[in-house]
Amino acid sequence: MHHTHREHTLTRSAFGGLAALAGIAVLLVALAASLSMPAVAGAKDRSFTAVKVKHGVATFRLKHVSPRQIRSAHVLGPKGTKRLSLKRIRRAARRGYLRTRISRHGKHRLHVRSKRARRSAWSRRRSKKTDPTPPPTTTPPPTNTPPPTNTPPPTNTPPPTTTPPTDPILVIETPDPPTPPETGACTTDLNQFAPGQSPAACWRAYADTSPFNRLIPAGARLTSDSSSLVANLRSEGSGPKSGRANIPEGDDYHKNIYWARSTDPEYTVIGGSTTAPYDVDGRKVRMPDGARQTAGGDAHLGIVYNGEEWCFYQASVNPTARTITVNSGRRISLAGDGRNAAATSARFGCLAGRIRYPEFAAGQINHAIFMSASTTGSGFVYPALKSDGPKGAGYPPMGTRFQLDPSYATDAWLAGFPAWKRAILRALRDYGGYLGDTTSGGWTAMPFESEVGYYSFGLPRPFAAYASSRDSTDGDISLSGGTYYFNLASGVDWSRLRVLDPCVAQGTC
To answer: pTM to 2 decimals?
Structure first.
């Protein structure tokens, strides 16, 4: 963003809590493999045992299954597998139950098997009551028994076979749920990190209901002008610009994030919002000694402290007076939706869609990607709250959610890329990318956190160190003029992007 923001009073959007998905144990993984049932990439199986089987018809009770998220379904029975149409299983999920016919022969054999088992159990109990059991005889131990010999293990032992289930089981494939915060560093006190440290890759900012943390459901609705919006996005660049590391200070427009502790000095903010609960003007915030804004024209500065994100645009740190003077800025809750900040055109938070180094290095990005473009329209859609786009109608408005077509970006296809690139492309497929700012020339989809948050303390630049260790073996990483370039565009057909209807991010369609 290369312009001055004006502060606006905005109504904070509130998300209704989503009903938590009930945890049901995943059954029959080995069985599905033995029956040659192909697994859906990026999906998990939910299994339901029949509550009733009568006259060859099985009844299943379906709980906590969203019809929109069902990808496929099949029934496993004694005689084999029966696939169900997507339309039928989604209709059943809305009703809460499914009735489907299974093999009559299999049903008969099931009843026969059950009767035989009951008769056998009855016979054993009967024999115990009527036939006295003679006392056991004591056999003297053998003498001069030779020591046991080591018998070689048998060779060519056939693998164990999987027995088909005796009761019908319904298996429904749905997308993987958002990765929850893990134990340890992901759920710990965020006020404990020293300079150059930050939460592990599994941690992510904002609530699970945030639009930045919501998975894209299967069959998500597209806008009617999806193809033309993608074409206009790419009109000044067929693919995204390369991500950069070891950037000259004056050319750094990334967001730098500092993690403050209770022992860090207090700074007084001068400027920024005066509108509660986002107000920062005149307030004090803690920040590590040595922290400073980026040197690019946007002069971004982000601070995480006491469960809040303080995000500033065109900031100036005075370490002597302990002040932070800002053009615009707000504070938002890390437990909120990541909106109503004031350092990007769309009013997204500093951490919204940001790729932190721990995520990048681990190849684990469990949220949407922040995007910027020079071809943004002058309007905005949810989750954006404003726009500075220079283009008119027909160009993607601020807040547009792009997705890399999942039928194109399959797991098998993604496996051919380096881990860092695979993680970003997978995030664009599973969570999408939100247009949140205007840039000069082309468009971007690699919003690294700024390395100033590391080298301002004399620490190595992590993205540059990563590139330096791999540029000789990774064909998508190159060095030019002291700057490392991460080529995200190569090997990808970017015309396979598509635009989702804003109602998908809102959860209303």
So the answer is: 0.65
